[in-house]
Amino acid sequence: MALTLAAGCARPGAGDAQAGLREEAEGAASRVRRAAVAGAFYPGDAGVLKSFVARELEAASVPRCPGRVVGLIAPHAGYEFSGAVAAHAYKTVEGLHYDVVVLVGPSHRMSFKGAVLPESRAWETPLGVVEVDQDLAEELVHASPSLFVNDDRPHAQEHSLEVQLPFVQVALVGAKILPVLIHDFSPETCKAVADALVQAVTGKKVLLVASTDLAHYPSSDRCRDVDLKTVALIERADVEGLYAWEEKATREFAEENVACAICGLGPVAVVLSVGKQLGLDRIVRLKYANSGQVNPATIDRSVGYAALALCASKLPPAESGKAAGRQLGQAGEAKMSDAPLGSADNLTDEQKKRLLVLAREAITRWVRDRSTVEVPMDDLAFREPRAVFVTLRKGNALRGCIGTLEPVAPLGEAVVDSAVSAATRDPRFRPVGPDEVANLDIHISVLSPLRTVSDPREIVLGKHGIVVRRGYQSGVFLPEVPLEQGWDLETTLSILCVEKAGLPADAWKRGAELRVFTTQSFGEEEYGLGPHARH
Hints:
With 535 residues, the protein is α/β, with parallel strands linked by helices. It folds into three domains: 3-31 and 64-334, Protocatechuate 4,5-dioxygenase, Chain B (3-Layer(aba) Sandwich); 343-448 and 521-532, Glycoprotein, Type 4 Pilin; 451-517, Hypothetical protein ph0010, domain 2 (Dna Ligase, domain 1), CATH 3.30.1490. Helix content is 37%, strand content 20%. The longest helix has 21 residues, at 349-369.
C-alpha cells in the first residue's frame, strides 16, 4: 500500500486531466464497474473486508441524531487511516431504509465541467455488486443535459466514491446508489448541481453522502488546528465560510505544507445545499482524527478526517419495522432528553477521581511529548457517549475551557479529548506549557441531554447550562457562569446571544431557540488532587 496515496489524495490540474477525457473510450460501457482500489485503499479479500467494516460499525459510539439523517460527511482515505472515522458516519444510518444513496465525491484523476454520472448499471466491490439508480441518473441527464453527463472513464480509477461502498453494503443492505463526480468546485457549478439534485430527489427517501478528507500534509498538530476550524464551519453549514477558509488556510499555512483545508469542498458544498432544501437544520459532529494520530509515520505529513451527520429534526410520518424504530430512537428528543442514560448519570466519587486523574495524565503526556493515554474501558460508565466540558484554571484565572454539547464520544474518550483541547486549542489562550501543568486545577462537567424550553422563566441560574441557537449560530454558558459574573437572567441571555452566538442581544426574545442542560460537575480540589494534593 502506498502510504501517501492511502492516507490522502490530491486533485489534478486541468491540463493533464482534460487529456484523459479526450481519449477514446475502450469499447462500449460495461454493465458493471469493477473495483479499482480494493487491496489498496481497503481489503481486497471479501471476508477480511466484511469483518473490518462490521467490527468498526460495532465499535462506533454515536449520539442520537435529532430527526432523520438526510446526509453524511465521510472520509475517503485508506481504511487503516480513516475507516474508523467513516464507520461513525454510517453507524447513524445502519439498518435504515433509503430509496437511494447519492454519493458525491471529488474527481482526483480527471477534470471536467459539470457533474459526471456512470454509464455502468452496477458497481462491484469484494462484497458484491451495488445497483446504480438508472432512473434517477436518466432524469438528471434529461433535465440538465449541459450539466450532467454519463461517462464511466472518470469513475474508472477514482477512489473517492468506491471507498464508501463497503460501508453502504454492510450498513444499508440492498440500497441503490447514484455516484456523482465533480471537479469544478466553483460556487456556480456546485449550486447548479445542488439545484438539479433537489428537483430530482424531492419526494424520495434519499441519503446524501459527501466524500471528503480534510487538511492535507501539515504536521498532525497543525492538521488538527486547521480541521477544527473546517469542521466548525461545516457544523454551521457555512458554505461561503468554507470557500473563504480554504483560500485563507492554504495561503497562511503554505509554509507548513497545508495543500488544502478540505479536498472535497465542492461535494460538501453540494450536499449542504441540497440538505438545506430537504429540511436540514442540525449537523452533528461524530468523530475526528488525522493520520498522524493513527500512524506516527505520518505525524509530520498528516491528513485529516471527520464524520458528521446532517439531520432534519422534523420527522416524516413514522415508518414501519426496524427503520421506524431507529428513526424514533434518533429523534425522540422531546421525551428522551430527561431520561437517564445509564450509570454515567450518577458517577461515584471513585469514577470522578479516575476521570480527573485521566484528564491530568492526558494533558501531561500531550504537552510533554505529544503522546496519548489509553482510555480505561473496564467501567461501563466510561463507555457511554456523553457530552463533556473540561475547564482549566491557574490560580483564580481561567486557562482554558473546551467541550461538546452533543455526546460525540464515550465518556472516557470525551474527557481526554476535551482536556487536551482545553490545554492546547482554546483560541483565547496560548497553549499550556509543560512547566504549567502541575499548577493547573482541572474541573470536569458531564452534561445531561439538552432540553428545549418554551419560556425563559423556566431557566434556573446556577442549575441550568443554557444554549441559544438560531439557524446555524449558537452559543453556550455552563451553569456556573452567570453566578460567577453576578448576572440576572436577562443579562445572561443577552450576553449569551451577543458574545457567544453572534446574534442580536434580543434574539432570545425573537424566535431563537433556548435549550438547557444540567451537569455533574467535579474538580480536583474536592478530591485533594492536582495542585491541592496533600503531601
